[in-house]
Design goal:
heterodimer; A: mainly beta; six-stranded mixed sheet; 11 strands; 0% helix; B: mainly beta; seven-stranded mixed sheet; four-stranded antiparallel sheet; globular
Chain lengths: 115, 114
């Protein structure tokens, strides 16, 4: 059974701090690792990491995929109150067969950034 | 493009009632899926479809039915609502193109079963 585990489950920091969120996965025919941000509504896409793109960066957010360790981290530097959200990690399989879009999600990390 | 739309936004049911949550997308995506989200449990896959006429079960399919008669629509039916089905339901879609694992989510339906 496919599994994705995130840690920590919750995190409270102050503005300006740097945080690292962790995600480990066990997915049959793994192809990609995705990160989403969720703020009281639908998840919004942040990054997708595959074997051809194991490091992504956008502003203060960056993510790395470690295919050997079957894990990924999401870093947020100089956190702001607007970063407060649930961060979801998901892993998806390869294109073969009928499960190409099937994502397995982790439990999420609740990040709270205080001013 | 409206993207992925869901109706209703909120719904309250009594135990034993049935209802259908609607989901539609206008991006011509082949893949559509339904998730439920409960506190501390992330998103759990209920049912998914890789194209019209093809559906399959996800992690938590019991008590739910789906069908996919068109590419655009993927309704989720609750056959006989139970309090354990109180949750937020998200519909999502993705394509077979580049970045196909990226799923686009609808705004969600918050369901309460009394």
């Amino acid at each position: 059974e496919d599994k994705v585990v995130q840690s920590p489950l919750s995190l409270v920091v102050h503005e300006g701090d740097t945080v690292t969120l962790n995600c480990s996965y066990e997915v049959t025919n793994f192809r990609s690792l995705l990160w989403y941000k969720q703020e009281k509504k639908a998840p919004t896409f942040l990054f997708m990491l595959t074997s051809s793109g194991i490091e992504k960066k956008s502003g203060r957010l960056s993510s790395i995929l470690d295919k050997k360790e079957l894990s990924s981290i999401l870093n947020i530097t100089a956190t702001q109150t607007g970063d407060s959200a649930i961060y979801l990690c998901a892993a998806g399989p390869n294109a073969g067969g009928t499960s190409y879009g099937k994502l397995t999600f982790g439990q999420g990390t609740i990040l709270t950034v205080h001013p | 493009n409206a993207g992925v739309t869901q109706t209703p936004k909120f719904q309250v049911l009594k135990t034993g009632q049935s209802m259908t949550l609607q989901c539609a997308q206008d991006m011509n995506h082949e893949y559509m899926s339904w998730y439920r989200q409960d506190p501390g449990m992330g998103l759990r896959l209920i049912h998914y479809s890789v194209g019209a006429g093809i559906t399959d079960q996800g992690e938590v399919p019991n008590g739910y039915n789906v069908s996919r008669s068109t590419t655009e629509d993927f309704p989720l039916r609750l056959l006989s609502a139970a309090p354990s089905q109180t949750s937020v339901y998200f519909c999502a879609s993705s394509s077979r193109g580049v970045g196909y694992n990226e799923q686009f989510f609808g705004p969600g339906t918050r369901l309460t079963v009394l």
